[in-house]
Model the fold of this input.
Amino acid sequence: MAHHALSSQESYNPNHLLDILLGKMQLKNDAALSRMLEVAPPVISKIRHHRLPVGASLLIRMHEVTGMSIRDLRDLMGDRRTKYRLSDAQGRPKPEEKAAQLAAQQAAQQAQPQGQEAQGNDKSGNYAH
Done:
């Protein structure tokens, strides 16, 4: 059985969150919850059996439907992490992207003084004559 990284936290219990949502929204079962959250029923089942984590998009949908804060929803399932990244490398630009961004910034800085001079000489404004 494939478990995700969050399930290694001892306090992680998505069933508690799902049960609270069922009660708060006065729903009878997981099928009704899946309809309310607009997800397929197997998604709820996989979350209950720790085969699928409660993802960001589902948390946002829970927030929209219940009005509960994301922090409260995460607390209900026992997610006590303070950062949301899976690793330090996630979200960082790749070295080639970083080099391309730096080159683009340098080109923009070199082009800027030339652009300002052109604006000073052009008294016609934005209109074509």
